[in-house]
Specification:
- By secondary structure, the protein is an all-alpha fold.
- Helices cover 93% and strands 0% of the residues.
- It is built from 2 helices and no strands.
- Helix 1 (3-37) runs antiparallel to helix 2.
- The longest helix has 35 residues, at 3-37.
- The protein is elongated, with a radius of gyration of 16 Å.
- 4% of the residues are buried.
């Protein structure tokens, strides 16, 4: 893989991470709102979203670490 290709992958990974951070922030907000209204289903669904986002962040981080 050339240096240019690595930079493109890192750039794309960074963009993916930005989207995941946005998703994570929304999930945290949803949990906070769920706590405010005591909606157990909303809280559990939001926590599931956080877990999925964290897994995707770990995967992107692993790719970036491998390329580095």
């Amino acid at each position: 893989m050339t240096e240019k290709e690595r930079l493109e992958v890192i750039k794309h990974s960074y963009e993916v991470l930005q989207g995941l951070v946005k998703d994570l922030s929304k999930s945290v907000k949803d949990v906070q709102e769920g706590i405010d209204i005591s909606d157990r289903n909303l809280i559990m669904g939001s926590l599931y979203g956080i877990d999925g986002t964290a897994e995707r962040i770990r995967n992107v981080y692993a790719v970036m670490t491998y390329l580095h």
